[in-house]
Amino acid sequence: AQTVTQSQPEMSVQEAETVTLSCTYDTSESDYYLFWYKQPPSRQMILVIRQEAYKQQNATENRFSVNFQKAAKSFSLKISDSQLGDAAMYFCAYSGSQGNLIFGKGTKLSVKP
Amino acid sequence: DTAVSQTPKYLVTQMGNDKSIKCEQNLGHDTMYWYKQDSKKFLKIMFSYNNKELIINETVPNRFSPKSPDKAHLNLHINSLELGDSAVYFCASSHGTRPYNEQFFGPGTRLTVL
After folding, report:
1. What distance in Å separates the CA atoms of residue A109 and residue A44, rounded to the nearest whole number?
2. Is residue A104 scored above 70 in pLDDT?
3. Fewest CB atoms within 10 Å of the CB: A78, A104, B70, B111?
4. How far apart are CA A92 and CA A38, in angstroms?
5. Which chain A positions have a beta carbon within 8 Å of B102's beta carbon?
6. Distance from CA of A71 to the nearest CA of B (A)
7. Which site among B100, B102, B109, B111 would you substitute to test the A interface, given the most A Cβ atoms closer than 10 Å to its Cβ?
8. CB–CB contact B108 A47 (8 Å)
9. Alpha-carbon distances of A84 from A12, A79, B106, rounded to whole Å
């Protein structure tokens, strides 16, 4: 069975600084995607970024980028120039052969002004 | 236009009652999901339907019964509600079941069982 682990329950970053959220996963599948979702206090699930397992190039979306280390089964999220609006729960998620998302337990990110 | 909508957004009810949560998507997707987010924010798949056919049924009590009248709707009916059913329930949809298909989430329904 696939598992996703987020080892940082809470993180804090100063506004305009950079923060990295960690995620590791376990799978025996070869075809899968990895995602980072943001959940602000409004509780809406918002897709931040996704990475295809076959692509070696790390995905980037504006201030958000990932460090995908396939051999180590690691998928960290880097947020640059942190903004107050980045404060939220961040979930790492895996999607494989069944198509459903398997989530980590989340990291609560606080942004200090 | 809301892509994935859920009704109601909040539901407060007594133990033992039966309740339903409705989900509708207007994205033309053929796959829909129900996820449960517990009090510790942990999200877990409950059910998945593809073209109205149940394809994922996790270890969920029989009191939970999903129903998909058509590809655009996936409702969740819960019988004999228990305190432990209190959670936020998210509906989601995607085009197909392949891992690269982005899932679009509804706003969630916060269920409180008293």
Report:
1. 16
2. yes
3. B70
4. 9
5. 47, 50
6. 19
7. B100
8. no
9. 11, 12, 24
Token pair of A111 as six digits? 């942004």
Q: What number of C-beta contacts closer than 8 Å exist between A and B?
A: 62
Q: For chain B of 114 residues, list the mean pLDDT of each consecutive stretch of 10.
A: 90 97 95 95 93 84 92 95 97 87 94 97
Contacts of B3 (CB under 8 A, 6+ apart): B25, B26, B27, B93, B104
A10-69 residues touching B, CB cutoff 8 A? 31-33, 39, 42-45, 47, 50, 52
- In this complex, do A99 and B94 lie within 8 Å of one another by their Cβ atoms? yes
End-to-end CA distance of chain B: 34
Percent of all residues in chain A with a pLDDT value above 90, rounded to a whole number: 90
Contacts of B103 in chain A (CB under 8 A): 95, 101
pLDDT digits (tens, 9 = 90+) for A69-84: 999 999 999 999 999 9
Of the given ranges (A9-13, A94-98, B73-77, B109-113), which has the lowest mean pLDDT? A94-98
Tell me if B99 and A97 make a contact (CB, 8 A cut-off).
Answer: yes
DSSP codes of every residue in B94-113: ESSSSTTSPPEE---EEEEE
Q: Categorize the per-residue pLDDT at A56 as very low, low, confident or very high, splitting at 50, 70 and 90.
A: confident
Contact yes or no for A105 and B42 at CB 8 A: yes
pLDDT at A111 over 70: yes
